Amino acid sequence: xxxxxxxxxxxxxxxxxxxxxxxxxxxxxxxxxxxxxxxxxxxxxxxxxxxxxxxxxxxxxxxxxxxxxxxxxxxxxxxxxxxxxxxxxxxxxxxxxxxxxxxxxxxxxxxxxxxxxxxxxxxxxxxxxxxxxxxxxxxxxxxxxxxxxxxxxxxxxxxxxxxxxxxxxxxxxxxxxxxxxxxxxxxxxxxxxxxxxxxxxxxxxxxxxxxxxxxxxxxxxxxxxxxxxxxxxxxxxxxxxxxxxxxxxxxxxxxxxxxxxxxxxxxxxxxxxxxxxxxxxxxxxxxxxxxxxxxxxxxxxxxxxxxxxxxxxxxxxxxx
Length: 320
Hints:
- The protein has 320 residues and is an alpha/beta fold.
- It has a single domain (2-206, 283-319), classed as TIM Barrel, CATH 3.20.20.30.
- It is built from 14 helices and twelve strands.
- The chain has helices spanning 2-11, 25-34, 53-67, 80-86, 94-113, 153-162, 174-192, 216-231, 237-242, 246-257, 261-266, 270-276, 285-293, 309-319, and strands spanning 15-18, 40-43, 46-47, 71-76, 120-121, 126-127, 145-149, 165-167, 200-203, 206-209, 277-280, 299-300.
- The strands form three sheets. Strands 1, 2, 3, 4, 7, 8, 9 and 12 form an eight-stranded parallel β-sheet that branches. A two-stranded antiparallel sheet has the order 5-6.
- Strand 5 (120-121) and strand 6 (126-127) form a beta hairpin.
- The longest helix is centred in the N-terminal third of the chain and has 20 residues, at 94-113.
- The radius of gyration is 20 Å and the shape is globular.
- The mean pLDDT is 93.
């Protein structure tokens, strides 16, 4: 973590992100904060409904102070099965619950840093007690920025209303950005009285850069596996349905329930693959990204998994 964040900062990246998969993203970002001075530190994402707003507020407020105000709190709802069966937490009305969650966070942060009386009472969360012994001292960095992971129209609208940005899913096409995400965000912004330039759209697209042409087909097949896995999830069905691929999602979901993972990859044909992903040589990367996301998003996230990661990453970033 220390080596990567130092290298990323020196190369001019403006944010590093820690995901919540096998690690706690806040522990990773605490290390990143210690070994950097200017790069923003984002959770991409932290599972909101696995925590209550008060516990999330404590963790993020402390990290915001420690990092000197560099935190981007990226939160997602996860899906019902994981929330109920992995985290043993309540699930209902995810968009409405997330809206209230963000408002509760802002009320808690305000009670600590602005001296506001804590009196948040909602349908899903109630926070009305804050005694001096449990109230962190105010700091000068303000609250973290809040970005929401969103796929459906309702969650994107919530992001536009109460958050500072939205994080699209990797399964997100330029058409879906134009026809679903952008109008939904605009409706939310209108509710909050804000303009589009006061909000960020972040896209962690499925991108694979292949330096050796002989390995291109292997990379495409690896991406078929990834697309097949994610596209089997009902939460991402709206993207496929927009393109007329609703039946594909049904078929992929049936395969996932039976553990037929290899068959799922074979169902991803070239049209689906090339619409949902970018698999290209380094010198084609900038053009592909511009064609897919130009004018639609403010920020893209990129990930590298190779052991010899940094020389290749730096070269690809400069090309981009």
